Amino acid sequence: MKEITAIIRRDKLPETKKVLEDLGFPSLTIQSVDGRGKQKGMVCDNDLDPDMPEKFCTSVKLTPTPSTYALEHTLPKVALFVPKRMLTMVVPDDLVTKIVKSIMSVNQTGKTGDGKIFVSPVEGALRVRTAETGGEAIA
C-alpha cells in the first residue's frame, strides 16, 4: 500500500475528484492548506483570475499573496502563502502509477504553482468499525 498526497490548485479540486471517482477511488481526505514553493508565495495575476489571458502572465507581473493568518495578525514581515488543497489517499501498490498520472493530467497547467505529489509507503491499515486490516481496510 502507498499513500498519495497531492497538493493542488483550489480550482482543480472538482476535476481531480471526478477523475479519481471515475478510476474507482472516491475515498480521499481533503484539507485546505496554505503554503509556498519556489515562487515564495508570489502568484501570477492570472492565477488569481483564470479568465485573464495568458499573455498577461510574465515573470515580472507577480503579485504577493499574504496568508489568511498574516491578514488577521500583526506580523513584522508579511508571510506570503498560497491557498491550496491537499488530497490524501491510500491505494494498492499496483495502482499508484495510474492514479498519479491521472492527477497529473488534470493539474498540469505548465505554470508555477501547479502543485506537488508525494508517494509514501504505508506499513498497515486498520478499519476501526470492522477491524479489517491491510488491503481490505482501504477498499
Written description of the protein model:
The protein has 139 residues and is α+β, with helices and mostly antiparallel strands. The protein has a single domain (2-138), classed as Alpha-Beta Plaits, CATH 3.30.70.120. Helices cover 25% and strands 27% of the residues. It is built from five helices and six strands; from the N terminus they run E-H-E-E-H-E-H-E-H-E-H. It has helices at residues 13-22, 45-48, 68-72, 96-107, 135-138, and strands spanning 2-8, 29-35, 42-44, 62-64, 82-91, 115-121. The strands form two sheets. A four-stranded antiparallel β-sheet has the order 2-5-1-6, covered by helices on one side. It has a two-stranded antiparallel sheet with strand order 3-4. Helix 1 packs antiparallel against helix 4. The termini are close together. The model is unreliable at 45-63 (pLDDT under 50).
Tertiary shape: globular
Head-to-tail CA distance between termini: 11 Å
Order of helices and strands: EHEEHEHEHEH
CATH topology: Alpha-Beta Plaits
Which parts are unreliable, with pLDDT below 50 for 5 consecutive residues or more?
45-63
